[in-house]
Amino acid sequence: MNFKADFSHWLDLPWQDKAIGLENFDAIKVLNFGDVSINVTIFNTWIVIALITLISWIATRNMKVGVKPTKLQVVLETFVLWMQNETRETSGSKNIQYLQMALGLFCFIVVANLLTFIPWFRPPTASLSTTMALALTVFLSIPYFSIKNAGIKGYLRKFIEPVPLLLPMNVFSEVFSVFAMGLRLFGNMLSGVMFAGILSAFIPFIAPLTMQTLGLLTGSIQAYIFALLALVYTSSVRENSD
Questions:
Q1: To the nearest whole number, what is the mean pLDDT of the chain?
Q2: To pair with 71 at 20 to 30 A between CA atoms, which of 5, 171, 217, 241?
Q3: What is the pLDDT of residue 141?
Q4: How many angstroms separate the Cα of 75 from the Cα of each of 55, 70, 81?
């Protein structure tokens, strides 16, 4: 198998000397394994995952009873507790069965947006393939948690409530409401990159920094909304005591 790496365009600014569009995030290939190519979106996704894993490992590697926690550990524990409370309040569940999913989605989107402070970093959330993959994760989680908590009959019953006549409408809503989340996240992230690129043509240094700072705020809000909606959809069917 032939291996080839080409990072010549990886360091290009996303808006530099080219029109900004979908192809700029998915068409650039950085690694080739024979007939299999890894584009910049997938490669940057690996970077985000690796960074989350590294930070988690550093914060917990010396976590023992009786050992004073590090500042990083305290910060992460505070964050996890906050997300745990949000999960319980939103889902109405007493346990934390939804926490891993909500925490994973939130952390991935936030870290991807934080890395936009690096001028040449193309956030994977600005690619439709990434945001739709996140939406697909939520879509598959809905029947999983619903059947787990209410059984398959309880899950299927929601499609004929309040009357069986609404079956087509309920199925349509189940599918498109979730994937609308992916489209919304994609639109917000890509528009931020495009807007920064347009302003950069007029104010080369100040505009990108200003837009990136604003993008961090809006990106964090979008991550919170995405995780919150995921909790609402996945916890919509609950019959068993939890």
A1: 81
A2: 217
A3: 92
A4: 11, 9, 10
Burial class (CB in 10 A: 0-12, 13-18, 19+), 116: buried
**CA torsion angle 78 84 86 91 (round to 10):** 180
State how far the Cα of 167 lies from the Cα of 170, in Å rounded to an integer.
Answer: 5
The pLDDT value recorded for residue 192 is: 63
* Residue 3 DSSP SS3: strand
CA–CA separation, 112 and 48 (whole Å): 6
Among 113, 133, 142, 124, residue whose Cα is nearest residue 234: 142
Q: Given the structure tokens 């996890």, which residue do they identify? A: 80
Nearest 5 degrees, angle CA 77-CA 63-CA 220?
25
Tokens of 221: 């809000």
**155 to 136, 162, 176: CA distances (angstroms):** 18, 14, 18
* pLDDT given at position 24: 61
